[in-house]
Amino acid sequence: MKKAFSLIMAIFFVVLLATLGIMALGFSTQTAKQSMDIYLREQAELLARSATEFAVMAMQDHDYAANNCLQTVRVNYPEFVAVVEIYYLDASMEFRGTTTKHCDEDRILTGVSSALSGGTTPIYDNIAMLDVTVTSNAGTEPIRYFRRTIQRP
User: Fold this and answer.
1) Each residue of 54-78: pLDDT tens digit?
2) What's the pTM value of the predicted model, to 2 decimals?
3) N or C: which end of the chain has fewer CB within 10 A?
4) What confidence score (pLDDT) does residue 122 get?
5) Pair 86, 71: CB distance under 8 Å
């Protein structure tokens, strides 16, 4: 009788150790996956900030009088793509002192620009709202990070 009870206790102990081992292995795998996802998210946030700064520099270099408005800036980085969509808050950007349109109407946020200027005097500051989208398929799950800022180049 004592031998049978000892055998049952030994089997229970082995099953308990196997269960704890499987749980430990599962937690370590999950931790490694979370660490990779956190790393990729941080990289996406940094790329979004860099893409915003790069878009502001591109806006400063762009000749608005001779060319159409700058609408999109694309930044490629290993494993990531950042796309910056530019929307202008300056209602005068549409014509820039001439009779020809330089910007598409969907790129001018007229409701915001008239509210900022009090509805009387147009703003000539080239203020823009930048929508940054960073995407990556490098990790176990696709990463998408959005950032919206208002910049005055």
Assistant:
1) 999 998 888 777 777 888 999 998 8
2) 0.70
3) N
4) 54
5) yes
Q: Which 3-state string (H, E, C) describes 113-135? A: HHHHCCCCCCCCCCCEEEEEEEE
Mean pLDDT in consecutive groups of 10 residues from the start of the chain, 153 residues: 78 88 79 81 93 92 78 91 89 57 70 55 71 87 90 81
Write down the residue that tokens 């591109």 correspond to: 58
Length of the chain in terms of residues written? 153
Taking the CA of residue 36 as centre, how many other CA atoms within 13 Å lie in the half-sphere pointing to its CB? 13
C-alpha neighbours within 13 Å on the C-beta side of residue 35 = 6
- What separation in angstroms does the CA of 29 have from each of 25, 35, 37? 6, 10, 13
Over the chain, what is the mean pLDDT? 80
Residue 56: both structure tokens together: 């502001």
Q: Shortest CA distance to 48 belongs to which of 75, 70, 88?
A: 75
What is the maximum span of the chain, computed from C-alpha positions, in angstroms? 103
The encoded tokens of residue 19 equal 């269960």
